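Hi support team,

I submitted a single chain yesterday and got back a structure, but I'm not sure I'm reading the token output correctly. Could someone confirm the output below corresponds to the sequence I sent? I've pasted both exactly as they appear in my results page.

Thanks,
R.
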Amino acid sequence: METAPVPRLRLRVTATAETIIRSGHPWLFADSIREENRAGRLGELAVIFDRNDKFLAIGLFDPESPIRVRLLHTGKPATIDSVWWQGRLKQTLARREGLFDAQTNGYRCVNGESDSWPGLVLDRYDRTFVLKLYTAAWWPRLDEVVGCIRAALDPQRLVLRLSRNIQSPAKEQGHPDDGQLLLGEKPDGPVTFLESGLCFEADVLRGQKTGFFLDQRENRRIVETLARGRDVLNAFSFSGGFSVYAARGGAKSVTDLDLSEHALAGARRNFALNQAAPGVAACRHDCLRADALDWLAAKPVRKFDLIVLDPPSLAKREAERAHAVGAYRRLNADGLRWLAPGGVLVAASCSAHVSTEEFFGAVRQAARESARPFTEWQTTGHAPDHPAAFSEAQYLKAIYLKFT
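Hi R., thanks for writing in. Yes, this is the structure output for that exact sequence:
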């Protein structure tokens, strides 16, 4: 006896959710669902209808997540098949055309919800690509996604990275593990790539994010233009990206400050990779292993002409927002005590729970409280390959202050 086909998962939502979906927001929360024709399975397509029983949207269903559906498509009905997926990836990659020349082969190809690939990121490091998943809803479609990437980009290797929230369930359910190769051979160590003609390494198997902080490229380029003749402090330096740019820009010295010896070792290797650049070869490079927050809070023992403060997120959840705003003010106040007359402060935040206005306000307050004359030179946001199409995606911001 044949089993009857399972009917399509159909959802109806609250009037408020209808409005939010039509506005372009990519998430449907569980408490916004008012009717469900059956229990949904992880990763299946859920079709959302409005109060008049007309198609509203379709997305990936996750019965265990507060974000119950991550939307793929809104508007008119569409058939989500292999042709559709291939077309979606082609459209996404087309948005990057013309952004980079042969001097940059490390960048983001797919930026999650903001590129209509909810909970999925794809980064390129030369011929190595890293696919990072932030939701288990992609598991049933992983092979199809890998096929699309193979056809469109012909990667030498494709590495899978998983957000922490889905690593344990992946192991328990027999899915590929964090750092597993989906295509190609495992690299012997970090892979190298070009950014603005500089060579960097990325630990694609175990490094932070997908192996490198690609989102700060434009700010690194700006720092390079400000560095000539300056002594530079790169606090929370990670693997020294800002420092290598500053050195090429003519800095007299650069000091990397980080708590991780592993990160500082990476910074030394990145300097070694770029010795062919005259500025890098001529620049003194120092590494300090210390907690940057504690080090900056101590009495200054020297002054720097250019200071970059780019800490990890100080607010990982909404409940930490108010405390983080105060912490940003204190951090920048401490940093300014190390800044020489005529110096430049570059302050950045990657905390999505702290708004742009709150962060810039905290830095400006610290600058005013220093009683030192300053001018606000520039503010920046997301890089073009890291678009932020909705409020929760807007995390990156930086401000440049010049002091007399």
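A quick pointer for reading it: The two ends are 84 Å apart (CA to CA). Let us know if anything else looks off.

Best,
Support desk
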